[in-house]
Each structure stands twice: as C-alpha cells, then as structure tokens.
C-alpha cells in the first residue's frame, strides 16, 4: 500500500501537463504581472535576492522572478512537475536550480534564503506545521516567507463553507484539468489536516507560535464569500496571501 505522499505525487504527475499550460497562459496574459505586484508590495528588491520556491510545480515563480535577475532555487516532490518546470524555464530563457525535494525536509543549511515563496501547496501537505518550521529554518533572519493558498476543501467539513460551495462560490475552475479525475484529490484531501481548518487563521496562529516577527494577510476581499451570522456580515476567505517575517 503506497503512502499518502506517493498518492499526492501520483495525482500531480497526472496534472503536470495541464498545470504547465495554465502557467503559460498566465504569462501570455497580464495575470503574471499581478502576482509580481503582490510580491513587490511586501519585499524589497533593490538587489538580486536568493529565493526558494517550494512546490514549484511547472516553474511559475522561477520564470516570474528569474527574468529580473534573482537567484532562484525551486523544489518539488513530483518529477513530472520538475520536467515541466525545466521546459518552461528554457521557453522563457531563465535559469533556476531545480531539485526533487520533500517540502517537509529541505536539504539546505539554516538561514540560506532571503525570500521563500509557495503557491497552492500548504493545503496539500500531510504535516503543514512541520513544513512551516522547516521553511523558517532555511530563511535568513528578517527574511520574508510568502504563501499563497486557500481553503480548497474546507467545504467537506465546515457548514458555512459547504453552503458557499453549493452556490458555486467555492468552486474552482479547472480549465486545464484535462481528463484527470478530480475525485482522486478530493478523496486525498479528506484525510489532509488543513481540510478541516479555517484559514488563514490557522496559519497566523501557527506562525506566531513559531516566533515570527510579523504576519501580514491579504484576502483582497474578492475571493471571499459573504454570509450572515447574528445579523452581521461575515466574510469567509477562499484564497489568501500570507507574508511572514522571520
């Protein structure tokens, strides 16, 4: 019987080609620049930064920031994703160090990176608290860790999010999922710890307990569902950005 990590890897292996097409689409439109502006709002980039991208997938962040001269190290546990990342880096003429690595256990020295980035990964991990601790370990003092993530499967356990999901507000459009059965990842998500946690509250509390200097959160308001509680509007975020300073 294969372990959960291998199940997750096998699913994303099937998704690699379609996911790669989705990031190319982001670069061919204006959406990639939106991501860069979000990063630059929180990070001083007067000089080249040493950046780690955890769970790089098809290489979105290496391309986005590598074109500006930053030194990018990108890791992923799925070989098929790394193959797509290598092709995409060649396509956009950027260089990055690409390595297979488990997000829970990184092969880097303490205090190595100026900036750590991650997009749509933490929710997909068996032990997100361990991963956060490991990322902070390799981050330099005063360095920034920026995490872009969401409450993707909270509707399986939370009534308020389930109501939002029924209205279609919580649905994610999978234009590039191709013929991959989405029930595979849904079944995996049922057993992942963050599918039961309201976020980013969980992340804020966890990072503060780990001793970060500050935590900033941006939900943008556009990716939240508004519901009523005791006559008051309550906003339930689906996606968010967390910026923690070590």
UniProtKB/TrEMBL annotation:
Superkingdom to which the source organism belongs: Archaea
UniProt xrefs under InterPro entries: Methyltransf_11 (IPR013216), SAM-dependent_MTases_sf (IPR029063)
All copies of domain Methyltransferase type, residue ranges: 52-146
Membrane spanning stretches: none
SUPFAM superfamilies noted in UniProt: S-adenosyl-L-methionine-dependent methyltransferases
Alphabetized GO MF terms: S-adenosylmethionine-dependent methyltransferase activity
Pfam families registered for this protein in UniProt: Methyltransf_11
UniProt xrefs under PANTHER family: 2-METHOXY-6-POLYPRENYL-1,4-BENZOQUINOL METHYLASE, MITOCHONDRIAL (PTHR43591:SF24), METHYLTRANSFERASE (PTHR43591)
Protein name: Methyltransferase type 11 domain-containing protein
